[in-house]
Write a structure and sequence with these properties.
With 365 residues, this protein is an alpha/beta fold. Helices cover 36% and strands 17% of the residues. A 7-stranded parallel beta sheet has the order 3-2-1-4-5-6-11, with helices on both faces. Helix 4 runs parallel beside helix 5. It is globular, with a radius of gyration of 21 Å.
Length: 365
């Protein structure tokens, strides 16, 4: 257990092995926190993103501890919160893949919606309302079929996937517990944030890995869905600072974190291929559209309707004005820098491993 002095900076992160959890753990450790993370039990360790942070608990000065847990297990969460007694909880755990949520809607609801409720209930049952600050990882997918552009904190929600609907419940239950029980509970409505350690099935990482593989002749073609979907893309490294800033405020509130600019999947593809000196020329229309390398004439990008969502979100563009005014937060990594960093990281991985499937690099790289 931590000493009273240490308790001033004790964080509990659910989903610590994910992209955001890894960057956040690094960020908090650098600021003197003791960090506890929840990870699901599996036959593989699945800690690649945070292995460089981990030290044996028997070593001196260890400040990172991992615990087995699951957002579907209320007794487990209650025990962990009670034993750790954190001063800050960052609820990042989720089934976070939008397309997958259409295939596993019940599981998505159980983890993303009810999981948040279970964590808030643990705080309430343990009577820790005055002792802990709670951050809920909300999402720009809440806006879905957007009702205004850009989207801000007051924009009406219109979720378009089981994932977004589950996150909508999590958003409002966080607001409810804040108002009903006086909890310092806040939502961060984060627009798309990526990085070199983004999951390999997400479209941005799928693109950058394919570009690196095509360069080395390991892959022939990249298959995508909606090329014209527009997203507000930033770097996860910048966004975890925003999460932390939200919990440092005297009063809880909800904030949009975004770059304030939008780009299409098509633009991401073009910029990614430029990193390997390939110019993409688009030909055809509809599902027959394809991207051709201007230099070789080969088709490098093709469409597959299997990657299109049943209900699409066409445009996401956030207004981060409130975050700038109240938190002093702004993004620092440009869209071009983000794409270049992701492509270069995947190129480096392939050079080192010589294979297409490999462990991802840690958050510091």
């Amino acid at each position: 257990m931590s000493s009273p002095a240490d308790k001033k900076k004790v964080a509990l992160i659910s989903g610590i092995t994910g992209q955001d959890g890894a960057y956040l753990a690094d960020f908090l450790l650098q600021r003197g926190y003791t960090v506890h993370g929840i990870k699901r039990r599996s036959s593989s360790l699945n800690t690649d993103r945070i292995d460089y942070l981990y030290r044996d608990r028997h070593d001196a000065g260890v400040r990172l501890f991992l615990h087995y847990g699951d957002m579907t297990d209320s007794t487990n969460l209650l025990r962990l919160v009670g034993e750790i007694r954190p001063t800050e909880i960052y609820n990042l755990a989720a089934q976070s893949h939008v397309q997958v949520s259409f295939e596993t809607p019940e599981y998505t609801a159980n983890t993303d919606a009810l999981g948040t409720l279970r964590m808030l209930e643990a705080i309430r049952i343990l009577q820790m309302e005055d002792d802990v600050r709670f951050y809920q990882a909300s999402t720009s997918e809440l806006f879905g079929k957007v009702q205004e552009t850009p989207q801000r904190e007051q924009t009406p929600f219109y979720p378009r996937s089981p994932y977004a609907v589950a996150k909508l419940y999590a958003y409002w239950i966080t607001v409810n517990y804040r108002e009903a029980y006086g909890m310092h509970a806040s939502n961060g409505i984060l627009f798309n944030h990526e990085s070199p350690i983004r999951g390999e099935t997400f479209v941005t990482r799928k693109i950058t890995r394919a570009v690196a593989a095509i360069e080395r002749g390991i892959q022939d073609k990249l298959f995508l869905g909606n090329l014209d979907a527009k997203r507000d893309w930033g770097h996860a490294r910048d966004y975890v600072e925003g999460m932390w800033r939200i919990l440092q405020q005297e009063l809880p509130d909800d904030y949009v974190l975004a770059t304030g600019e939008t780009h299409t999947v098509r633009e991401f593809v073009e910029l990614a291929f430029r990193q390997i000196d390939r110019r993409i020329e688009w030909k055809g229309s509809g599902l027959d559209e394809h991207g051709i390398c201007q230099r070789s004439g080969k088709i490098l990008v093709a469409l597959d309707p299997a990657y299109c969502r049943p209900t699409e979100v066409d445009l996401l563009l956030g207004d981060p004005a409130k975050a700038l005014a109240k938190l002093g937060w702004r993004h620092h990594t440009s869209f071009e820098q983000l794409v270049a960093e992701m492509v270069e990281n995947d190129r480096t991985i392939l050079k080192v491993t010589g294979a297409r499937h490999e462990p991802v690099l840690h958050a510091a790289q």
